[in-house]
Write a structure and sequence with these properties.
This protein has about 425 residues and is an alpha/beta fold. It folds into three domains: about 5-190, Aconitase, domain 3 (2-Layer Sandwich); about 195-295, no CATH class; about 305-420, 2-Layer Sandwich (Aconitase, domain 3), CATH 3.30.499. It is built from 16 helices and 17 strands. The chain has a five-stranded parallel sheet, sandwiched between helices. The chain has a four-stranded parallel sheet with strand order 4-3-2-5. A four-stranded parallel sheet has the order 9-8-7-10. α4 (about 105-120) links the parallel β3 (about 85-90) and β4 (about 125). The longest helix is centred in the N-terminal third of the chain and has 17 residues, at about 20-35.
Length: about 425
């Protein structure tokens, strides 16, 4: 049976306003479905803000009505109120400034701005990124948070020791409004223990290595499992490990992962498993990674490339620096469009460092706050596109009459300047 505190009962009774009341109603319903006995206090929320296409299901209504219906499940128009915790926005449907460079119309941009203005009025910081942990969203060990970005949930649980679940878009808004979430799943220590052990018998060094490793483990991991990795000979960096979690979330969706000797809750294999025997064991070899590479569209020897999209998860300032150094003095091939994605706060540093000017002088376009997967937008006439992201390559392939290529950042940049795919990563 769910037990509420005095403060939670007051919100449920409407003493703290209609928005918090409706949010608490939904959180209570959510907790009862999960059979949670209590709620926990949420201090940070990462929210899926913007005029996303799924919101069109509410019809041609005002932005405030759409938010009430779609995000708070209320037929009553709810007043805008300040959120109950620190909030930051996830990826949106477009770059809010350079939307025209990604094939968005003025009408779409105006609608998106209306949504963002509403969120801003509620206290949401408009970072617009899938890498919140690179932009000030850093929950501490034991801190409870919500996020709508699958890989960010797993990364922050695993590396920070923070506590969050993949609750879903609407639950994130409820939690942000009332500051509560059911104490369930990764909010409970016993549920964070490893279930499946993967021995890594392959060199894992580069971003693409980590990308392929995550994709490969995800292909073998049962639902609702917690993988434990052993045998890693190289420690990851924050710049490489984000690819691992993004790719693994693509093919399976775990919310917790232990890297023995690296992540804080896995000083040893025994600690990661809580002294229990694993449900399953597997070994990952270089052959397994090569199989994933080919599934994603790697290994193509020669092909023209119409479109190259880089930055999923959004690029860090260090990755952008390397791109600028590569492209300095070079030009993007005629007939090839190149989009490079990052977060707005990171682009500010990029601008100040001179990297934006170098990159855009080559003919590439720097964009923020979105990606082809989230926006659904591509340059017109694209027949072949390339990514350095397993997540993008995986999701962009089905349902499109477009050839998808996958490779390292180096392979993508080389193709960008030549207009041809060499397949050199194999």
């Amino acid at each position: 049976m769910l037990t509420l505190t005095v403060a939670e009962k007051e919100m449920l009774d409407g003493k703290k306003g209609k928005l918090k009341q409706q949010a608490m109603r939904k959180i209570v319903e959510y907790a009862e479905i999960l059979n949670a006995s209590e709620l926990c206090e949420v201090s940070m929320a990462h929210l899926f803000c913007g005029a996303h296409d799924y919101l069109s299901a509410a019809g041609d209504r005002s932005v405030e009505e759409v938010i009430s219906i779609m995000q708070y499940c209320s037929d009553e128009l709810l007043p805008l109120e300040e959120m109950a915790c620190f909030c930051q926005s996830d990826c949106g449907p477009m770059d809010p400034i350079n939307y025209d460079k990604m094939n968005c119309t003025q009408k779409e941009a105006d609608r998106n701005k209306q949504f963002l203005d509403c969120y801003r009025a509620c206290g949401v910081n408009l970072a617009g990124t899938c890498v919140p942990y690179l932009c000030g969203f850093v929950p501490l060990p034991g801190e409870h948070y919500v996020s709508s970005e699958s890989h960010a949930v797993t990364l922050m649980n695993s590396f920070w020791g923070a506590c969050g679940n993949a609750d879903g878009l609407e639950a994130g808004f409820w939690a942000a409004a009332c500051g509560r979430i059911p104490k369930w799943g990764n909010h409970v220590k016993e549920n964070r223990l490893g279930t499946h052990v993967f021995e890594i018998d392959a060199p894992i060094k580069t971003s693409m290595d980590w990308d392929l490793l995550g994709y490969t483990i995800g292909r073998r991991l049962p639902s609702h499992s917690v993988p434990v990795l052993t045998g890693l000979s190289n420690r990851p960096t924050i710049f490489t490990i984000k690819y691992f979690f993004a790719a693994m979330a693509t093919t399976s969706g775990p919310e917790m992962c232990h890297l023995v000797g690296i992540t804080p809750e896995a000083p040893t294999l025994e600690a990661a498993l809580g002294g229990k025997q694993p449900i399953g064991k597997a070994t990952i070899t270089s052959s397994d990674l090569l199989e994933s590479f080919k599934i994603l569209g790697g290994g193509v020897k020669r092909d023209t490339v119409d479109y190259i999209s880089l930055g999923c998860p959004h690029y860090s300032i260090e990755e952008l620096r390397k791109i600028a150094m590569f492209l300095e003095g070079k030009k993007i091939a005629r007939g090839t469009a190149v989009h490079i994605w990052t977060a707005s706060p990171i682009k500010t540093v990029m601008d100040n460092s001179g990297y934006t000017q170098i990159i855009e002088s080559s003919g590439a376009v720097v964009l923020t706050s979105s990606c082809p997967l989230t926006s659904g937008k591509l340059p017109p006439g694209v027949k072949t596109m390339a990514f350095d992201s397993a997540k993008q390559a995986h999701y962009m392939t089905p349902g499109r009459d477009i050839k998808v290529l996958y490779g390292s950042l180096q392979a993508c940049l080389t193709a960008a300047t030549t207009g041809k795919w060499s397949g050199s990563d194999e």
